[in-house]
Structure formats: structure tokens, C-alpha cells
């Protein structure tokens, strides 16, 4: 596959599974995240399947984003597919109890970070009049649930930006679409509950959650449609999840 894919949040969960699956298919990979050691290990693991370049930066740091993407070597400089995946929830509290630091983290990473990376990549797509952007939203960007407040707001923003990008980039022939997962077992809940692994594990009890690979396969399907086909928006949940709050648990 003669295409270069930049994946944010490739050190864990959905981003890592996407890197693994896309390596199998021979896409050139630019893998991003803050945890450099994980990126280096992933590069070692995947380099026998495809070309891999790693970029370690915090999506909240505007300069670091532009410096990292501006530093790409020639082989990787032309980005065909951008997967805006980096993101997390921080805390699960009612709006009156929520921590302002958690709110800042979610808005800075999930919304502003996604914007910075997009701004660093989109101009070259516009110039070439081709490209494909996948935004990882959430069921939380389709429905608000109790205590979801700012995380939901951040994912509603991703939904709005996904729609806006599709419209604004339409004249340039750039495809834009979102994949919105329901509950997927990743490090998501460990981050949300700040390392309380027991509480995190409980989130996935009593039903079969999505695996990160379920979402990676969905992303692969979206980006491998013929050039005239653009998938706007997919919501993918475990079968046991009928909405953000309706569950068929054992
Ligand atoms: P993980 O916690 O497993 O992965 C999150 C990834 O985001 C990590 O690779 C992490 O890398 C990266 N990341 C987080 N903060 C930053 C930052 N400041 N700068 C750069 N990278 C960052 O969670 P998931 O795989 O589940 O999450 C991926 C996406 O899927 C997120 O956008 C999430 O909101 C969304 N999602 C997840 C669902 C779920 O149930 N798991 C459901 C719906 C949506 P590092 O820490 O190395 O920087
Ligand atoms: C992650 C899924 O339901 O915890 O976006 O918001 S949920």
C-alpha cells in the first residue's frame, strides 16, 4: 500500500491496534504519542512489516506539534491519511464536583490537540488536492450521559469539527469521516480513573466490550473504500450497548 498514515495516540489502545493492523497491510506509518519508549518498541515490532517513523510530542503543545510534523524526513513528509485518535477522559464527576484541571486536560487534548495536528497536516493535503482524515469521536459525542459533561462536550466538539472539516475541505477533494466507538477495553478507563485499575476493570464487566482491533478494522474499512466513496460518520458499540446508558449486562 503506497500510502503514509499518521496516527496520534499510537502508544496504546485503538491507536496501537490501528498501527498494528495498518502495518500488516503495508501502509507507511508515522506513530505519535508522548511515551517515547512505547513508540520505540512499536517501531521495533512493526519495522519488519513496513516503514515506521515515530514522533514523540504532547498534542497540547502547539509548537511541539508543528516542530514534530515539520521535522518529518522526505520518505514520510507526504501524509495521505491522518487519524486523529489521541484523547482521553479525565474524571467522572457531576458538573458541580468536576476538577478544572480535568476539564482543561480534556478540552486541550481532545479538541485543541486535534486542531493543532490537523492544522499542521491539512495544508499539504489542500496543496495536493487529496487526503483522508479520520476523526475518532465517541458515542459520548452523540449522547450526553450523567457525569459525562466535559468529556461529552469535547467529543461533541469533535463531531462538529468532523462535519466542518468535511464541508470546508470538500473543494479540495479531501475525504473526512469520524469513527465513534462505544465502550472499548483500552487504557481509557485507567486514565479516566487516574490509575484506579479496579474501578477501570469494573467498567468492562458483565458484557463483551469492543476490542481496540474492532475499531482498527472499522478504520481500515473506511480508508480502503474507493476514492469516490466517503464515509461520514460511524457509531460502533458492543452489541450489549444500545446507547450511552442502555446496557444488556449479565
Ligand atoms: P488509551 O488511553 O488506550 O489511548 C489514548 C492514546 O492517546 C494514547 O496513545 C496516548 O498516548 C494518547 N494521548 C493521550 N493524551 C495525549 C497527549 N496529551 N498528547 C499526545 N498523545 C496523547 O485510550 P483509547 O485507545 O480508548 O482512546 C483513543 C481514542 O478513542 C480517544 O480519542 C478516546 O476518546 C476515544 N474513545 C475511546 C473509547 C473507549 O471506550 N476506549 C470509546 C470512545 C472513544 P501517550 O499517553 O503516550 O501520549
Ligand atoms: C468513551 C466511551 O461511554 O465512556 O468515549 O464515554 S464513554
Automatic annotation (TrEMBL):
Source superkingdom: Bacteria
Keywords of this entry: Oxidoreductase
SUPFAM superfamilies: NAD(P)-binding Rossmann-fold domains
Signal peptide bounds: none
GO molecular function terms attached to this record: oxidoreductase activity, acting on the CH-OH group of donors, NAD or NADP as acceptor
Alphabetical list of InterPro entries matching this protein: NAD(P)-bd_dom_sf, Sc_DH/Rdtase_CS, SDR_fam
Family to which the UniProt record says this protein belongs: Belongs to the short-chain dehydrogenases/reductases (SDR) family.
Protein name from the UniProt record: SDR family NAD(P)-dependent oxidoreductase
Origin organism lineage: Bacteria, Pseudomonadati, Bacteroidota, Flavobacteriia, Flavobacteriales
